[in-house]
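Box 3.1 A note on notation
Throughout this textbook, protein chains are presented in two layers. The first layer is the amino acid sequence; the second is a token string describing backbone geometry. Keep the layers aligned when reading.
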Amino acid sequence: MSEKVQNVNVEVAGGYQPSVVNLKKGVPATISYTRTSDQGCLDVVHSRELNFEEALPLNETKTVQINTDQAGEFGFSCGMDMFHGKVVIQ
């Protein structure tokens, strides 16, 4: 990771890998989600706490901007809230 921009790749296949994303506070960040499984509810990823919702087409990468101004743990999940991950900002 560069000190100027943080980008983390998350594979979406039967869950999130990695399921915990660690970011540095105050450094601009993105998470790039790539869905490689056609499991139904994983076709959407959302987070109320981080204010995003993205459709995840199969075998395409979707990137979301993450606001890193505030430290803490923030959850994200699939469209049906069955699979979970979290962003940890320190």
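Strands lie at 6-12, 16-17, 20-23, 29-35, 44-47, 52-55, 61-66, 72-78, 84-89. The longest strand covers residues 6-12.
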